Amino acid sequence: MPRQAVIFDMDGVLVDSYHAHYEAWKRLGQEHGLTMTEQQFAATFGRTSADIIDALWPGQADAADIPAWDDHKEAVYREILRERFPAMDGAAELLQALARADFALAIGSSGPPENVQLVLECLPGAESIAASVTGRDVTRGKPDPQVFLIAAQRLSVEPQYCAVVEDAPAGVQAARRAGMTAIALTGTADRATLAADAHIVVDRLCELTPETISQAILARAG
Q: Which Gene3D superfamilies match (predicted)?
C-alpha cells in the first residue's frame, strides 16, 4: 500500500494563533490610520498577508510597500507568540501518533518561513514533520491548491494519498482542489460552513486517529 501523508495547516490547527494574528493586524492598521474588525479578520484568516492587505485596505499601500507592511505585521505576531506559545490542544499527541503509524507529515501554511520555524521549534512532536511549505514558496494563496500540492511533492506522496487538516474555509477548498482528503477543525469557522467542502469535520484534534485518517484517505483513493 502506498505511504500516506497528513499535511497540516499551521495557524488555528497546530498553534492557536488566532488572537495573536488579530492583535498584530490591529497594531499594523493603527500605525497607518486603518481599522480591521474581528469579523473582517475571521473572513480572511488563512489567506496570505498580501491578499488581506489588498482585500481589506485597497489602495492604502503601494505594491512596493506591501512586503514591508507584511514583514512588520509578522514580526509583531512572532513577538506576541513568543511571550506564550499556544499549542493547539491535542496537536502534539496527534503528530506523535501519526509518526508512529509511519505517516509522512508536512506543514502547508500561507505564513512566512520565520513563523513556521518558530512553531517547529516550540511545538512538541514537530520533530516528526519532514517538510514545510510557506507563503514564500507559493505564488497563489488558498483556496488555490498550490501550497498542498508542493507539500505532497516534497513528501513524495501522491495527492490522493494525502489528508489535509485545516480550520479555514479557503484551506478546506484548497485541499479538495488538490484532490486530497479535507479534514476541517472547527474554531475559526463553524461546523456548517466547513461541512460545505470538508470530507470530515471535527471539533478537537483528539477526535482524529491514524486509523480514521487512513480509512478516509483509502475510501477516496479507491
A: HAD superfamily/HAD-like, Putative phosphatase, domain 2
